[in-house]
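Students often ask why we bother encoding 3D structure as a string. The short answer is that it lets us treat folding as translation between two languages. Here is a chain of 200 residues written in the first language.
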Amino acid sequence: MIGDSKVCKDLGINGYLTKPVKSKDLKTAMITIWNKEEFNGPQNFSSPMTRHRISEISRAKAEILLAEDYPTNQQIALRHLTGAGYRVTLAEDGQQAVDLFKTKQFDLILMDIQMPLMDGYEATRLIREQEKTAELVVARNNPQNPIKIRRTPIIAMTAHAIKGYREKCIEADMDDYMTKPFKKTDMIAMVEKWVAQKKS
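And here it is in the second language, the structure alphabet:
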């Protein structure tokens, strides 16, 4: 309810969550509150821990790879994503996206379809190959307790909104599809959906 945060703050309560409570939200709240108490003391809380604050924390931890060659689209996407609190690494073509994927773990990849040097389809194929190779290496080095590597969600970005295009992207081993021009609410909703699935 409106005003709950102030009431909790006045009472010295460090956080509150509305029901039904998701286990990952409860875990994030507990860890964050405990760490603040350990290093700063509970009196230094500026406001109680809420679901909205947990969402902000999750966004700040999420790493997104943006593969986009057109400068205007780069600026729009970066503004939307960083404005929402996400950390974003930019790749200006498919080859850069593949190279960056080799060096860093990402929670989500936004992949333009039409790029110079290497398009989004080929970049996706190579990224999926890297994931399979990494899983084989892990299994070979740890045969008694193989760890399954989580698939990185890849969202296709294209100006084509024609029927059947989404299916084509899914067939290319991508996970979802987003059309340009980018609308902030649509982009953030798409990103939140897939980042939450990757981290769950």
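Translate back mentally: The helical segments are 4-11, 23-39, 51-61, 71-83, 94-103, 120-141, 165-171, 184-199. Keep this in mind for the problem set.
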